[in-house]
Structure formats: structure tokens, C-alpha cells
Specification:
nine-stranded mixed β-sheet; alpha/beta; elongated
Length: 206
Amino acid sequence: MVRFGYSAVAVLLGILLFGGCLKLQRPEKPVRFYTLEYAEPELRLDKPLGSILQVNRFRVAPTYNTRRMIYREGDFRRDAYVYSQWRDNPGDMVSYFLARDLRGSGYFNAVVPHRTQAGVTHVLEGYVEEFFEWDFEEGWEAVLTVSITLTKALEPDVSQKVVRQKTYRVREPFQEKTPTGLAAAMSRAMRAVSRQVIEDVYNALR
């Protein structure tokens, strides 16, 4: 009777250990990566300008200075999706797409990336203040807040250096609470911000 009891315990331990090994060897759920994706905004401005713009990489507020997809479900809370991430940091994405759209607009002589000094007439710097999903009982919104500062590249007088400084905030609703829904809504928000920035930079330099 005692021998049977030991055997039963051994079998039970074996089953538990085998099951544990199988569980440990189970592959983890893969992380999926998302990026912004949208067509360049259509603009109807006047004739092209001779300005050469340098777009520096935008800095990011500490809470959103990460590739994790941040969402807000309540006051003072910020959480992140576990298996979904942005492909790039929000500062890299915003500055890249803004430079792409400025260049694609055709209203400036040239648009160059940071660390390009030759011939630059103006420098565009920025700060991503908000980049997250806001969850309500009624639905969800992608929130994008970006501040820009446009300066003269060769102006030695600090008091005369800043041409334009402005903050843009866009809240874009979406119907499907998924990372794909957030990426699509954030792309629409970025397109709207980009259009406003291009118009304001153009009007400031004309």
C-alpha cells in the first residue's frame, strides 16, 4: 500500500514537471510593430519660396519618449500595449514625416535633415508633447500635440532669431480599439498637424 502510494506520487510529479516543461517551451506571442502611414497633405499656396529648411529631430515629453504604444484609461494613468509597439520613437516619426511633407509640398527651395549646414536659411525644431490613445466610455481618440520653433539660421541677434513658435493639438477619433485603429487615427492626426505646420511656415517666410 505504501509502495503504491510512492508510485502514485512519482507519477503525479512527473506529469506536473512534464506539463511545466511544455508550458515553459510554449512560444511567446510575437510583438507587432506599427508606424504612421498617410498620403502627403494637399496644399494650395502661392509661388514657391527660396528658403532652405533644416528639420532637426524633434524631442519628446518623458511619458511618450518610448516606442511603446501608450494609452490613457483614467486620470493620472498611462499604460502601454504589451504585444504592440511603434516601429520608431515618436520624435523620429514626427520629424521624419514633417520633413517629407515639407519637401514634397514643393513650396521650398530645399528641405534637408539635421546636421546639414550648407546653404540653410532656416531651422525647424520641435517637441512632441502628447502622443497617445485616450480611452473614453463613448470611444477612443488618438491625441497628438506638437510644438514647433522656426528660427533664422544665420541671424546672430538672439532677439531677432525666432521667426515663428506655435503649438498644434489634434484629437482624432477611431472606431476599432486595436493597435491598428490607433495607428490609423494617429496617421490622420499627423497629416492634419503637418498641413497646418507647412501653411504656417510658408506664411511666416513669404
